[in-house]
């Protein structure tokens, strides 16, 4: 007997086994779309020129990843989940580097990391109180740590959806092969 596919198996559940990974991945896509809309609103409402090219690159990468994930829902092909997972891994690496820079900024008041983190926070004034700068640096660090946790969980859900689609495709191709081979098989010759 070949592989069987049970879409309701606990293997394909997420969110404490409460929902199917397809539903979970759809929720991830909706949240990602909302994040992209908020990025646009933030840039329009609070335009700042600092790190604009970096933010545009992030927007394009996440937009492409979201488009691929939506295409995975439409075509039910696992390969379209990969861009989301890769962008999430890249975002994880960038977030870890930013956290390291935040820690350096907290330890050394004159470092390049402090200037980078404060520019990222939108505080480019040199006369700002040291406590305010330290609070901004800590806030950025904690925010990015929360982002790492949420994005890691989202990437895990999309990865499980990738496994779901891959197993579903394997099951379909096995059934198609069995049906094809049973239709083309010639009856055995009874004279031998």
Automatic annotation (TrEMBL):
InterPro entries: DUF7807
Domain of life per record: Eukaryota
Record key words, sorted: Membrane, Transmembrane, Transmembrane helix
Transmembrane parts of this sequence: 27-46, 52-73, 85-106, 139-159
Pfam families: DUF7807 (PF25093)
Key word Transferase present: no
Database matches in PANTHER family: PROTEIN CBG05235-RELATED
Protein name: Transmembrane protein
């Amino acid at each position: 007997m070949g592989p069987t596919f049970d879409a309701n198996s606990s293997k394909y559940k997420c969110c404490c086994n409460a929902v199917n990974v397809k539903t979970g991945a759809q929720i991830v896509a909706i949240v990602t779309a909302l994040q992209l809309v908020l990025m646009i609103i933030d840039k329009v409402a609070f335009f700042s020129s600092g790190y604009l090219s970096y933010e545009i690159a992030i927007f394009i990468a996440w937009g492409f990843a979201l488009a691929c994930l939506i295409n995975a829902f439409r075509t039910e092909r696992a390969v379209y989940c990969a861009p989301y997972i890769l962008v999430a891994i890249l975002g994880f690496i960038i977030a870890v580097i930013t956290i390291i820079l935040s820690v350096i900024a907290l330890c050394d008041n004159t470092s390049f990391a402090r200037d980078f983190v404060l520019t990222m926070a939108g505080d480019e004034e040199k006369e700002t109180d040291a406590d305010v700068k330290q609070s901004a640096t800590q806030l950025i660090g904690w925010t990015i740590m929360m982002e790492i946790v949420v994005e890691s969980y989202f990437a895990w859900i999309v990865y499980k959806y990738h496994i779901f689609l891959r197993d579903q495709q394997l099951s379909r191709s096995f059934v198609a092969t069995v049906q094809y081979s049973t239709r083309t098989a010639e009856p055995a010759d009874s004279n031998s």
